[in-house]
Amino acid sequence: MTSILHEGPSACRRTLSAPPGCASTAGQLAACARLWERAGPDDRVRAWERRWRAFPRLLVALVGTEAAGVHGAVADLRLAAEENPATADMLAAVPAGAARIEDLIQRGPSAPVWHSLGARGGRAYRWTAP
Questions:
Q1: 20-60 pLDDT per residue, tens
Q2: Fewest 10 Å CB contacts: which of 18, 30, 121, 124?
């Protein structure tokens, strides 16, 4: 499991690597949700809004997941997120997707390899798609 926080002047990325079991990745999504909902010092805005205009997109790299198992792994992550109201709220508002690491390496991150964690069903899409 890898969790790396990259900070830049106007962006933040958290890279989550999902092993075949999703419990630890769901825990990291919950940690992101806690950051997303944390109030700032003056309680007028969320803490992250003091630094960034938009909450960063969340990208989950599925490690060790066979091509036939992608939909099941994404469904497991969605189910785990639904069990945590803060995570479910965050995934409804923040773009989040999962893709197999092999697909990212072979086809690239801008290819239609992403599966939404916040929306049900559908085909893989390009990360830049609305």
A1: 456 788 888 899 899 889 988 877 788 888 888 888 888 89
A2: 121
Token digits of residue 44: 């007028």
Tokens of 90: 């965050």
Q: What are the E-state strand segments in the chain?
A: 3-7, 12-18, 58-62, 96-100, 115-116
**Percent of the chain scoring above 70 in pLDDT:** 81
Are the C-beta atoms of 117 and 60 separated by less than 8 Å? yes
The number of beta carbons lying within 10 Å of the beta carbon of residue 4 is 9
Structure tokens at 27: 């825990």
First and final CA of the chain: distance in angstroms? 29
- Number of neighbouring beta carbons within 10 Å of residue 3: 14
Angle at 14 between CA 12 and CA 18, to 5 degrees: 165
Q: Whole-prediction pTM value?
A: 0.75
Of 16, 126, 18, give the one whose Cα is nearest residue 72.
18
- Amino acid, single-letter form, for residue 123: R
CA 18 to chain centre: 10
